[in-house]
Amino acid sequence: MLSRNGSSCHRSLVRVTCIARRSFQSTVPAWKRPSIAPKPALNTRHIRENPDLYKQTCIDRNYRDQQDNPQEILRLSNELKHLQHNARDLRQLRNIVRTKLASAALPDNVFDTDTDSQGGRLLNEAKQLKEECSKVELQEDALRETIEALAIDLPNLTSEETPIGREPRVLGYINDSSNAGRPSPARNHTYIGKQFDMLDFEAAGTTSGWGWYFLKNEGALLEQALVQYALSVTMKHGFSMVTPPSMVYSHVAGACGFQPRDQGGEQQSYVIAQEQRRTSLEQEGKPEMAMAGTAEILFAGMKANATLDAKSLPLKVAGASRCYRAEAGARGLDTKGLYRVHEFTKVEMFAWTLKDEEQAVFDAMLAVQKEILGGLGLHCRILEMPSTDLGASAVRKIDIETFFPSRQVKNEGWGEVTSASICTDYQTRRLNTRVKSSTAKAEKETSPTPKAHVQSSDFPSTINGTAMAVPRVLAALLENGWNEEDDYVQVPEVLQYWMHGKMRIPKRDT
């Protein structure tokens, strides 16, 4: 009886392991998450159920290298399901053999694998089954890693409010055109800044290279005044102040949708070289670090691996930081002066919120941006940005552009000064930031208008927006505030408190 059953188990083992080996055709991905990185909780089920939707999103947003990822995720998920089914058969066979070994009344030498005894064959079969189960588990892990890597590379879905294509939609204006300076190539902030001894690009070229600058005298004071003005407005609207670090782990930036290179392969961030550790416990070396391109990344990472209380949402933070952009590309009008630089000061707003409160928080953030720019007297237009302009994490993005008199040949003088985005749970799923409400059920029963009930495993949405991008706003103030006849620059009233009461900046004597 034992001999017949042992032979049956062996034939089943051969059949199952051959199927398992045939079912796995993928390789382990080159991408590898550092051991300290938050473990993503991606919604791959939604991708599997809607592969065409995700493919079209990639096409609409110019992520053509990723457009086949959804279908590949579906194929590999089916492969994984088949492998798991076969693995269950293997484990059942292993359990059968274990039971036979444990219960059979066998002679003392039955476990001698060198003999041709029934027990020896069972023991060899058990050992082989254990090895095959381990191999299948490794194959399962490799498949999961491949699926995860493919899913991580996909951009977020796109809002119905977002125009498909390359053209934005104008939503409105801030201040009228009478606030704008007269269009003229001479009203260039680089010329004005030099004449008033506020900007020095030549000295920065010597110390740091092209794309860097010195702010001097009233230029340096204007930077601080703009930061303080933006912070005062955001605080008035309920934002808590946070000053973030300037360096960030690259895997945190990646989880937020920022990659070292853009879709065109151009360098976007400054990566910091790390000395490799040589201890046996840290063979992978130090995780890669980069100079942060925006405080959004650091703010999102603040709550990585954290669980937020739904009652504390929306949780809103704002802060000033230095930002670093490699911004590779050809020089020209778009990169002249302060408009596109490698390092700059920015005040950023960021919020975690429940899904059903996304729009309200987004609208409130836009209201802050409008108040700040409106108070500066700048003539601006508000744009619903198109699908090709969305970052990986955003489902919707609204930019505000201000008028630069010197940029008539470029976009009719308009230049971006703020941006605001809804990112849904794209960042929180990748950073494992969750939201929990232990009182939601009680609130629902006792309150006629309770806060939306959430499950304990839900992920909050994130919203981000620029409160102040200093160099571009400073450039716009110089160009629009320059009085050519009397040779002074007008200081907006809202900044005069931080400019020691100065209403005008006169030209310095040389």
Structural class: alpha+beta
Nearest-angstrom radius of gyration? 30 Å
| Tertiary shape | elongated
- The overall average pLDDT, rounded, is 83
Tell me the total number of β-strands: 18
Note down, in words, how this protein is organized.
By secondary structure, the protein is α+β, with helices and mostly antiparallel strands. It contains 14 helices and 18 strands. An 8-stranded mixed beta sheet has the order 1-11-12-13-15-10-9-4. Strands 5-7-6 form a 3-stranded antiparallel beta sheet. A hairpin with a 4-residue loop joins strand 16 (about 480-485) and strand 17. Helix 1 (about 1-25) packs antiparallel against helix 4. The chain starts with a helix and ends with a strand.
Index terms:
510 residues, alpha+beta, 8-stranded mixed sheet, 3-stranded antiparallel sheet
Please summarize what this structure is.
With about 500 residues, this protein is an alpha+beta fold. The protein has helices spanning about 1-25, 45-50, 50-60, 70-105, 120-150, 190-195, 200-205, 220-235, 250-255, 295-300, 360-375, 425-430, 440-445, 470-480, and strands spanning about 170-175, 200, 215, 240, 245-250, 270, 290, 305-310, 315-325, 345-355, 380-385, 395-405, 415-420, 435, 460-470, 480-485, 490, 505.
Helices and strands in order:
Layout: H1 2-23, H2 44-49, H3 51-60, H4 69-103, H5 118-152, E1 169-174, H6 189-195, E2 199-200, H7 201-207, E3 214-215, H8 218-236, E4 240-241, E5 247-249, H9 250-255, E6 271-272, E7 289-291, H10 295-302, E8 307-309, E9 315-324, E10 343-353, H11 358-375, E11 380-384, E12 396-403, E13 414-422, H12 426-431, E14 434-436, H13 440-446, E15 461-469, H14 470-481, E16 482-483, E17 488-490, E18 504-506
Parallel strand pairs: 4-9, 8-14
Antiparallel strand pairs: 1-11, 2-3, 5-7, 6-7, 9-10, 10-15, 11-12, 12-13, 13-15, 16-17, 17-18
Helix pairs in contact: 1-4, 1-5, 3-4, 4-5, 6-14, 8-14
